[in-house]
Every structure is written in structure tokens, then in C-alpha cells.
Prior knowledge:
five-stranded antiparallel β-sheet, three-stranded antiparallel β-sheet, homodimer, Phosphorylase Kinase, domain 1, globular
Amino acid sequence: MTATGETTTAGNAGIEVPDGYAPHTAQSLPAYLAGIPDVVARLGGFSSDWTVEEVGDGNLNLVFIVRGPTGGLAVKQALPYVRLVGESWPLPLSRAHYEHMALDIQARHAPGLVPEIVHYDAGLALIAMDYLHPHIIMRKGMIDTIEYPGFADAISTFMAKTLFFTSDLAMSAADKKAMIGAFSGNTALCKITEDLIFTEPYRVAENNRWTEPYLDDVAAEFRDDDDLKVAISRLKMKFMGSAEALLHGDLHTGSMMVTPEDTKVIDPEFAFVGPMGFDAGAVIANLLLNYFSQDGHEKTVGDRAAYREWVLAAIEAVWTEFERKFLGLWRDHSSGDGYPASLFETPSGRIRLEVERRAYMDRLFQDTLGFCAAKMIRRILGLAHNIDLEWIEDPRRRAGCELRALRMARMLMVNTSDFRSVTAVTAAARTFRDRVDVP
Amino acid sequence: MTATGETTTAGNAGIEVPDGYAPHTAQSLPAYLAGIPDVVARLGGFSSDWTVEEVGDGNLNLVFIVRGPTGGLAVKQALPYVRLVGESWPLPLSRAHYEHMALDIQARHAPGLVPEIVHYDAGLALIAMDYLHPHIIMRKGMIDTIEYPGFADAISTFMAKTLFFTSDLAMSAADKKAMIGAFSGNTALCKITEDLIFTEPYRVAENNRWTEPYLDDVAAEFRDDDDLKVAISRLKMKFMGSAEALLHGDLHTGSMMVTPEDTKVIDPEFAFVGPMGFDAGAVIANLLLNYFSQDGHEKTVGDRAAYREWVLAAIEAVWTEFERKFLGLWRDHSSGDGYPASLFETPSGRIRLEVERRAYMDRLFQDTLGFCAAKMIRRILGLAHNIDLEWIEDPRRRAGCELRALRMARMLMVNTSDFRSVTAVTAAARTFRDRVDVP
């Protein structure tokens, strides 16, 4: 089946693609783009003046940077398979449809925090959008200890607005159900998450890899850890069955294009209506992974101490600001069917509702920590790893960083309710870094 | 919009109906049915031999009983408005589409416990099904103190099978999301629940009614009860955001056609993918309401004591059997993406999973009690009441029964976690009946 329900035809390797779909190349792209007035207006000049560079360093898609005399574009095209793996792992083109829908909704609720869409071609599973320049992938900047003073503010705004405004606190139940229905077909992308995050790291699986031989024991230990496996299974049930808000679905530091002043969130192809804590947990997990990775990048002992503290401060700011902004939106824009204002109109009712709002955020924080832990573990024992850790060349040193992250993640996931504040989390990060013996 | 997305045309009173839709009458129905071979085979003879009786005593639809020489049929047709209220309260015909889909799924998972569909006409929003004879509406039988020895077994099987097999424990995430999408348009029926159960009884609303003047004070007290309003709002959020399994959605004793030997569940037009506890809570709530109503029907003090105990025993059996059967299905048919068996294959893993299954049922029990309480309160302070209580003629006596039920429901909803077993619930029912002073 295709994204848009169009007629399909068997392509190579038995992968079905819609009639008219073909992957572009750097050579074929200019002629196609020259037919699109919005694109021409953006790039300027003639197609012969444009340069095209294929830069896709993600795992799934083709990405072209197109530059013209007056501007640039990023052109992202889905392939009918996982790029990293090849045609043996088919993946539907429909992900471009869901990404486009999500980008559109995110742009409406969090303007300025996602790239602007210049052109969308459903048949080609192709999106042309702002070329973000001089932005870089945040993960890379963090490996180089670049501080991003605007990051916590931007990402907390992105999360607060996109999550709040697509929740039952802001939407009517009917509109929300329509949104759930609209995204309910993005199952192939959800399944990647279900398998790679919530299942495979906890059992023997072909996709798993870790820093051998140093982490062999802990990998085996995790596969035998029944409490951990119950905890990850509860989180998986929540991921599959909790339809709280439209999620980005893959909100790690590799999905953020940043400068010290600006932050843009990209790549929402995993979007679906799920538990809010999954997005918030992804952000915190990737900051924590970077925190634990810094020891592996130090040239002299302690030369990254200040940056480590910046990372922990960012974690605290992300959650604190997210909570503050989400609560503010709830107080001011409570137009949804949840917690109807008409039930809480007396002075005591308003107080009670405010107490409940805090309790709601506490429950969301607990969800966030569980998903955060899941995101940390999968990046060390599962298929897809982070360059924060991967770029530590000495495997023994890398394994030390990873072991500390794993031990903390296990504690977070199994004893979630012992962490009642974000400062409890950052304090624990310091403790695990200080006290876990490494190989 | 129509159920099936067909072209629509404005009908009377601005209500849109699809081309070709018209409500049948007892006069028009035989000629229509005579054109349907399956119907003719069931009824026998010629249409001139058939008798038609309109018996719809529900709130929403037309219901005809058609009898022929060799058999009978119940023919249910949706109207584009709420029958009880009239054209001023439009309600989409699509509910017949969702009812048909739900009946089909229920029949597959719980064969013999729902009426067989003989004919479905989407354009007419009409379903022809088994005429259940000599079944009566269970609620009426319970008012007449008829014991139903097969009931607890049947309804617990219905719930265990329909809920388990449509959950993430039995389905793949992709199939489940497709099911969620398929039912995501049944928003008008969900909204009735959201408004009438989860909102209006807790504020001043035109639809509300109660036994005046005796319950004026408690109705006002509930409208001012901030803890209760937070509790009902949490339940409403769960109703809107928790996509655990395909629910019947209106599983009260008026949706059950029974004989002492047989139980059939009818009328799943409120079906959607929601929290399992909503169905289980509806069953227990309606049994508890009947329990509290029996005092109002006694001719001499204590003449219904034995039936009251039968009702409490039924409550215990319903939950105990539901739990036992659900756990059994989980152990034997765990084919879904939730709690993957491959994570729990060691001896200790199997033990840990079994402990988690019990914990899962405990969490489901807590949900069940919250929804149970919500269902009790709405039947006493909201729009739609139960004949168990309504048929108590003396309003003062009726109010006494209702007050006990309200007090118990409030306790259940606000202090849910203090009730850890179904016997704690039945014991509380006895206590509230014994000790609440009545008007």
C-alpha cells in the first residue's frame, strides 16, 4: 500500500511503489525543480545555475542540498527501503506523507521552529524545504562542546506547543480522533521504534551491537533482567496504546539543526499520536548520552568538565521550561474537552485544578523518565548508536562511558518513581559518572 | 458527513442524510425485506405472511420485530437524530456502520454471545439480525428478581475475549492501529459519553435531572466537590486518550438480552478503541445500581434480601471470572506486540511475567472501579436514568436508594486505590446500604 492510497505497481526487489515514483539523483533533480514556480523563486536564476549535492547522512532517505543564486533548499525524498540497510528492508514511501502532515501541524503550533515547506510531491514522496544555513546537526556541535544558549528555550517551546495544542487539553475529542485516524497508517515507522527501542535490546537479536568485549557482560545481564524487561514492556504498551498528543516521534539531537542562536526541529517522519513523555524523554536521553560521552572525548582529565555542567544545566532547563510553558498554555488556552473549565469555576475549584495540573506534569515526568531510559539503552545495546559515543575511538574508554549511561538508565527505568524532579535526575547522572567502575 | 463517506444531501431540519436514505415504517419494511434472499430464507413464506412490530424502546433508533412462518428478525435502523429527543439533537447515521463493524468483530472473538447479522444495508443504516426469543432485557428481569445463573459466565467470557483479542496483547501494532483508524470516526457517539457521563453530572446542565427535592443537596454537593471533579476529569482523559482495546462502549444491563440459560450482548453502536475498564466498569456499575434499587421495590422489609445477595455474588463472579479468563487467554494466545514472549523465556522470566500479568489486572481493576463509579453517578444525576431506580414510584424511597449509590460511587471514584479486590467492593456496597441515612 502507498501513503496516499494510489494505485501501486511492483517495483524492483518486490517493493511496491506508486506509478510515477522514481528516486531522484543530483543529475535529475534540477530539471524537476525547474517546473515548480515556488522553488524557482527561492533558488533564483536558471536551473543551469543551481548546484546539487546529495548529503543524506541519515539512515532512511535521500537528502539533496540545492543552491541557486538567491537561495537554497533541502530536498528530502523517501526511498521504498531503509537507505542504511538497502532493499532487503522495505519501508513505505508513505513516511513522506506523514512527515509532511506533521511538519504542517508543527509549523502552525510552533512557528519558526521547523523548516518551512516550499514544495511537497506526494507521488515522489518528496519534500523541498528551507536549506538551514549555517545550522549544523546539534549532536555534532555537542561533540565539539559548542554551547547552545537558545536551545533549551527553543526545544521546550517546541515540545510545549506541539504537545499541548494536539492534546485533549486543547482539541475537541472529535478533532483529536480525526488526527489519530490521519496518522494511524504510519505503522511501519512505529514498528521500527517498537522493535528497536522496546524489544530487541532486551533479547538476543541480529540487529543488536555493542562495544565488545567490554559490554558483553552487561548486555547479557540486561537480557536476563526480568524487572527491566517488565519495565520496558510497560513502556511499550504505553507507546502503542496511549494517544495523548501528536509526537515528533524521533526527537533526538540528530533531529535538531542549530546555531548558537537558532534551533530548528527536522525529520518528523516517525510522527504519530502517542504518549507525550516519548518526545520529552528522547530529548533528555540524548543530552544524558552526550553527558556520559564527554569523558571519552577529553584530551586531558577534566578539560570538558565545564561542558558537562552545561549539558546538565540544559537538561534541567529543558524540563523546567517545558513544564512552565505547558502549564502556561493549559491555563490560557484550555479549549479542549479534557478538564473542562466549566467544572472548576469556583475559587476552590481553580485551586484544585491548579494542583491537578502540577500532578499531571508529575505523571508526565514519570513517563518521560521511563522513555528517556529506553532511549538511552537502545543507543548502546541496540542497532542505531549515537556518534556522541561512537566517535570515541578507544573502545575501552567508550565502553566506560556507555556502562555508566546503561547503569543510570536501568535505575531510571526500574525505579522511576524514586526520581521526583529533574534535579534528582541530573544529580543521579553525576553520581553514576563518579561511582560506576569502568573497564 | 455520512458513515460511509457517500454523497450527502440536506434532509429535513438541516440534517444531512445520504441519497437513498429514508426511515422505514412497519408498513414499508416487508416490501424492502422481500428483496433480500437471506431474509426471506429466515422468515419463510411470503412478505404478506410477515408481521412487523415497531418496538424501539431505546433512546436512539428504530427497532422492528419481523415474524414470518419459519423465523423472526430484529431490524434496527438508525435515525439521523436522537429518537428520544427528536430532530433538535442530530446524530449521524454512521453509528450503524460502527455497530455493524463491532458486531462482526465481536462475533468472531466471542461467537454465540452476540446476535447474528442476517443483512446490513449501509445506505439505509439498517441491520437485520437474530430475533432473540424468549430473551428479555436483563434490566427488566433483574427488577423482577429473576436470577441468571449463566450471566456471569457469559458476560465475563464476552469481555475477556472481545477485550483481549482486540488489545496489544493479541494484535500486532499495525493491525491494532488500523482498527483504531477504522473506529476513529465514531466521534458523535463518543461525545455523548464524554458529555453525559464525564462532564454534565458535575456541573449545572440542562440535561441533568434527579429525584427532587430529596437529592437537591447531594447534587449541589457533587457539583462543588473538587476532588470528585478532578477524578472524573482524569477518567475522561483516559476515555479520550487510552486506546487499549475495542470496547462495546455501552455495556449496561439494558444492552443484554437474556434468558436464565442464555446471554446475548446487543447494541454496540458506541464502539471505539478505548480503555478496557470502561466496559468492565459499566457491567459492575449497573449491577450495583440494581443492588441499591432493590430496597425500593420491596413489598415487605427484607423480601428481596436473597436477590440482593445474588446480585453481589454476580458482581464478584463477573470480575473473578473475567480476570481468570483474560489471564488464561494472555497465557495461551499472547500473539500481540505487547509483552513479547521472547523477553520472558527463562524460568525466572516466566515467573516475573506471571506476576506482571496479575499487576496488569490490578491496574485494570482500578480503571474499572473509576469508570464504574462514573457510570453510577450519571444514571442518578445526569440525563439518562435506569428503570431499576426509575420504576420505584415513591420518590422519597427512590431517593434513598439513589443516595446510597451516589455515596458509594463517590467513595469508589475518589478513593479508588483503597479498593484492592472485588470483595472489597461488594463489602462496601453492604456498608453503604446499611449505614447511609436516607431521606
